[in-house]
Design goal:
This protein is an alpha/beta fold. The protein has 5 domains: 93 residues, no CATH class; 152 residues, Rossmann fold, CATH 3.40.50; 100 residues, Macroglobulin (MG2) domain (Immunoglobulin-like, Sandwich), CATH 2.60.40.1930; 237 residues, Rossmann fold; 72 residues, Immunoglobulins (Immunoglobulin-like, Sandwich). It is built from 11 helices and 37 strands. Strands 16-15-17-18-24-23-22-20 form an 8-stranded mixed beta sheet. The chain is elongated. Keywords: Membrane, Transmembrane, Transmembrane helix.
Length: 692
């Protein structure tokens, strides 16, 4: 194709000189006119011809290759556009557009498919459009067609589209949906105290006449039996729950399906709340001042979540030092208040080298035993008094002890050892790795120099001492827990004797195990997730465990074998096929884990609409056609005209081209311009001479 591009100049002199000549010529012609010379106009034509010869005008022509116009089709393949008949409508609209565009000559069709946005970002239609426009020549774009339900979740970018933007809207006019919204939910909650969650149930779209204004809501905690409540639709509401288990709690809320609603994917929501204890109350009773007393006090006072009540028996009733009672400034020991009235308010009671001296009667020890059996925690740190006739083992409290003191006190150096069972128990597992090992492979911590001989009756021995005798024993008594440490020498590790040892870590774990810290339970089944990758962790004191059964959101189950990675720690991994709540079970243990967001963004709003894309459609003179009303005819319209109407959508031809060859030809040869100039000058002379 050939096209004329107009007249171009290739001056023989620089343009400033030509402009000066033109100015001088104009001045001379004006002077001739002022003097009344009859040939002034011939003088002007001669000057023009002379300047034209110097400017060298040429005609320029181009050889052009026409370029095809481009039509862009954006296909929404996100989750919300696959609901109901939308998937079929999308496929039909795409086939129709491809067929119509193929019949228009000189048109290229490009198709972009929009997947679900990463990390629950929803439909990123505006972003995809901006990226597509940046990759194609804008002067060839004839039109953009978006086959979508209109639910775009990214921010509009105020794009300047040089062609009509049209929306082929999927969905049906009679669509309606009900969804559950979690308005607010705390990340943490105090165990045993009610916590309030804000919820709302909303109906969207063409809600049928007579639809109930109440919905049935089922909710459960950690996969337990669900509770049911009737909740109003379209109103904010609150639900109060109480958490009894420490650690992460998974709350699942689910609306019962209403007849005819578009989807049930937004009828459920998952909330994860970390259950934490309020301030822990610890009662520390020291029988008499000793080197290890400060160790316990420093440990417990260093934890800001612990409220410590510490009493030391400085002057027992059997001491006769001659000091009159009225001169002593000691506080009376409130035994009844602590061990009868308020004993159940304590999370942990510690007896540190305490002996019976008539301060606590047997009825109080019986009450302490009841406290343990009903869910309390008791730690006994024994010195020589544990083996004496005044031992608290000889009180009613001895009925819950896991071992019997033999009355023998062994004063000799020894290194505490973690037993085979202790290597599996969370209180003592990994302790040996906290200090460098000795050359003979033994633990690298320092020695202790006193141990009370115990005869194990029940419970678990996790550390041993002289000749493998029980040193640290743990036991569950009824609903409570009891720990017995047969030495008062832990302070040697704290002081760094012979290199010290992991005293702080051991006592911290011991105290937290007794207070029911979930991370220190002996038998646990937990799961963590990174994306869709789920890691299952099984901790046990047993030598082997069974397979784990995993039940997905769709009710399908799979069985996974566990592999032991450390003593008592078993692991398995799997890739979850979809988001939702997964239930895990192994033996008597159950656990749940929630994958994905509590409410996927694709299902927050599911009713098809053109409102979100309306600004872009209006600015480009495009239009909206509902697929259920019929597929549109395509027409070519001139730029600037309305590009949509009833049953049709328009494309704007761009007529783009690329120049392949450029030709120039002189308008007139130079000598012709000079002849013309001479002729006009001669004519002026003759005319003016004849007139004279």
């Amino acid at each position: 194709m050939t096209g004329w591009d107009g007249i171009v100049f290739a001056p023989r002199l620089d343009w400033p000189i030509l402009w000066a000549l033109m100015g001088f010529s104009a001045l001379m012609v004006a002077l001739a006119l002022w003097q009344g010379l009859r040939g002034w106009w011939l003088r002007g034509l001669a000057a023009v011809a002379l300047i034209a010869a110097l400017a060298n005008p040429s005609l320029q022509s181009e050889e052009r290759d026409s370029l095809t116009d481009i039509a862009l089709i954006m296909v929404d393949d996100t989750a919300s556009n696959r609901l109901g008949v939308r998937g079929e409508q999308t496929a039909a609209a795409r086939d129709h557009l491809e067929g119509e565009l193929a019949q228009i000559g000189g048109l290229e069709t490009r198709i972009i498919t929009l997947p679900d946005g990463p990390r629950n970002t929803g439909t990123e239609l505006n972003t995809a459009l901006a990226e597509a426009l940046s990759d194609l020549p804008r002067d060839r774009l004839a039109g953009v067609f978006a086959i979508t339900d209109g639910q775009a979740h990214d921010e509009a970018l105020n794009l300047s589209i040089p062609a009509p933007f049209h929306q082929l809207q999927t969905g049906e006019a009679r669509d309606w949906d009900r969804r559950l919204i979690i308005r607010n939910a705390p990340a943490f909650a105090i165990l045993g105290e009610p916590v309030t969650l804000g919820l709302r149930v909303e109906d969207q779209g063409a809600v049928p006449q007579g639809q109930s204004r109440f919905a049935t809501l089922n909710y459960s905690i950690d996969g337990e039996a669900p509770n049911t409540a009737m909740v109003p639709v379209g109103e904010d509401m609150e639900i109060t729950v109480t958490l009894d288990r420490g650690g992460m709690n998974v709350l699942q809320f689910e609306l019962e399906e209403a007849e005819g609603e578009l989807t049930t994917r937004n009828n459920s929501a998952i909330v994860q709340i970390n259950g934490v204890r309020d301030r822990l109350s610890v009662l520390l009773v020291s029988g008499e001042p000793n080197a290890g007393q400060r160790t316990w006090r420093n440990l417990l006072k260093s934890d800001p979540a612990v409220d410590l009540v510490h009493f030391t028996i400085l002057r027992p009733p059997d001491r006769h030092d001659g000091v009159p009672v009225n001169e002593l400034s000691l506080i009376a020991f409130p035994t009844r208040e602590l061990f009868v009235d308020k004993i159940d308010e304590f999370d942990l009671i510690i007896f540190d080298r305490y002996r019976r001296r008539g301060i606590l009667p047997n009825s109080y020890f019986s009450n302490i035993a009841r406290y343990v059996q009903e869910g309390g925690a008791l730690l006994v740190v024994g010195g020589p008094e544990l083996a004496s006739a005044d031992s608290i083992w000889r009180s009613p409290l001895g009925d819950v002890f896991p071992a019997r003191p033999t009355a023998r006190v062994m004063d000799e150096g020894f290194r505490p050892e973690v037993t085979e069972l202790g290597r599996r128990h969370p209180v003592t597992s990994g302790l040996e790795a906290l200090v460098p090992a000795l050359e003979d492979g033994g633990p690298g911590w320092g020695r202790w120099f006193r141990q009370i001989e115990l005869e194990a009756l029940q419970g678990q021995t996790v550390m041993s001492g002289i000749d493998e005798r029980p040193l640290l024993m743990l036991d569950r008594v009824g609903e409570g827990r009891l720990a017995l440490l047969a030495s008062d020498q832990t302070w040697l590790w704290d002081r760094g004797f012979e290199g010290g040892g992991p005293q702080l870590e051991l006592l911290r774990r011991l105290a937290h195990w007794m207070m029911g810290e979930p991370d220190l339970e002996e038998e646990t089944l937990t799961a963590t997730a990174e994306g869709q990758r789920v890691t299952i962790l099984r901790r046990t004191l047993q030598d082997a465990v069974g397979a784990v059964t995993v039940t997905g959101p769709d009710g399908e189950s799979i069985t996974l074998d566990l592999t032991e990675e450390a003593p008592g720690d078993y692991r398995a991994e799997f890739d979850a096929p979809e988001i939702g709540l997964y239930r895990l079970s192994e033996g008597d243990l159950d656990a749940v884990i929630a994958l994905g967001p509590q409410a996927p963004r694709e299902f927050e709003e599911t009713i098809a609409t053109a409102d979100k894309l309306r600004p872009t459609i209006t600015a480009s003179r495009g239009g909206v056609q509902r697929v259920e009303d019929g597929l549109p005819e395509l027409r070519l319209v001139r730029e600037g005209r309305a590009a949509s109407g009833r049953g049709w959508l328009g494309l704007t031809p761009r007529e783009a081209y690329v120049t392949t060859e450029l030709r120039t030809a002189a308008l007139l040869p130079g000598w012709v311009w000079l002849l013309l100039a001479a002729g006009f000058a001669l004519g002026a002379w003759l005319r003016e001479g004849r007139g004279g």
